[in-house]
Amino acid sequence: MAWKKLDDLDMAGKRVLTRVDINVPVHNGVVTDDTRIQRITPTINAILAKGGKPILLAHFGRPKGKTVLDMSLRVTLHALEAALGRTVAFVETLEGAEPFTQEALNADVILIENIRYHPGEEANDAAFVKRLAGLGDIYCNDAFSVAHRAHASTAGIAALLPSCAGRLMQAELQALESALSSPKRPVGAVVGGAKVSSKLDLLSNLVEKLDTLIIGGGMANTFLMAMGAKLGASLVEAEMLDTAREILIKAETKGCRVILPTDGLVSRAFKAGADFEVIKLNENTTLDADQMVLDAGPEAIKTITAEISKLNTLIWNGPLGAFEIAPFDTATMAAAKIAAAQTLAGDLITVAGGGDTVAALNQAGAADDFSYISTAGGAFLEWMEGKTLPGVAALG
Ligand code: AMP
User: Fold this and answer.
1) pLDDT tens digit string along 177-212?
2) Which of 42, 83, 156, 255 could be stapled to 167 by a disulfide with Cβ–Cβ 3.0 to 4.6 Å?
């Protein structure tokens, strides 16, 4: 932990440039889900409690360096004021020596217009970074979800001001560090989802660090095919067979046990309620041309839940089957429920994130019981892939 926390800095009378993620869903000019706003309120309140003046830097959509009117952050103003119970002044332009009017300075919090209207933001342009840094005394980054971007407001500015992680960033980093940097062993992961190709770096990094890797979903099909199975119309990536073999070899040399499903729910139709058979899966399996493996089978579920029970730390990314169409959600639901119960009992640390994972865990009613669920898709995956995140490195 090389980064400073909000509590480590004196903020009394200081302007605190606070990078937040309030890129919320909006319909007809109204915020339809304020989760992201709710999640940053502890940081804003903590800055205010320390006598600092929060000046929020945020993006909204992808205006690509231009003023795009329907990507104005003004749309979030009411939701912000409601969540905080404070006055928030909206500042549209950064022009002039002092872009903040007295009225803005009198408000509790200042929100600056979409930072991505400026071409210097995504370019991390030195002059723009200097301009931004000149607006405040301290930099606080509470936007882990954009920490994989080396932009002016996510990384560049940290070099010019005393910097710290906000409360949400701190919680996220501590959860991720406890899962992968210094986990309570044995540590394992459930990695599922559609494709090996989109999770290659993830699998490659995880086999170096984990004791157990449970592979499920469509990507397990590719591994089974690499071992010799013929899986009919199943989702497979024929061009990834060598890669799958390389991952298995790397796992073996690094001492990571790989668990693949030994049976599956096999159907001839990709739809909810479709008829299915339970079929053993191994190197000798040969399915009909129209058959598809859509979920792990009962024997595999037994193995997976037993493996999860042996762990002290579990990372989760991706579903174990086509969880959107019952009954092919069975394995994902069963494994999520066991992981949640063990977490609740204090026997397991569970950290999940990325893409469909949050939806799958919500569907299982397991999300609330997991130790930490990251909603930062790309940044979560890049961390799990072992990559350096510019926004985190800049705080160091
Ligand atoms: P990802 O975004 O890579 O995590 O993939 C998630 C998607 O993979 C979900 O929409 C699942 O329905 C799908 N999926 C998981 N397992 C299978 C499978 N065996 N066959 C087809 N699709 C699957």
Assistant:
1) 999 999 999 999 999 999 999 999 999 999 999 999
2) 42
92 CA from centroid of ligand 1 (Å): 43
Query: For a substitution probing ligand 1, which of 223, 265, 356 has the most ligand atoms within 8 Å of its CB?
Result: 356
pLDDT of amino acid 255: 98
Q: What mean pLDDT comes out for the span 385-395?
A: 95
Site to probe by mutation for ligand 1, drawn from 215, 287, 323, 381 as the one with most ligand atoms within 8 Å of Cβ, is 323
Q: What φ, ψ does residue 213 adopt, rounded to 5°?
A: -125, 115
Active-site hit among 4, 130, 195, 302 = 195
Our answer to whether residue 195 is catalytic in this structure is yes
Cβ burial, residue 49 (10 Å; 0-12/13-18/19+): exposed
Pairing state between β 292-296 and 276-280? unpaired
| Residues contacting 267, CB < 8 A, separation 6+ | 274, 275, 276, 277, 291, 292, 294, 328
Give the whole-number percent of the chain exceeding pLDDT 70: 100
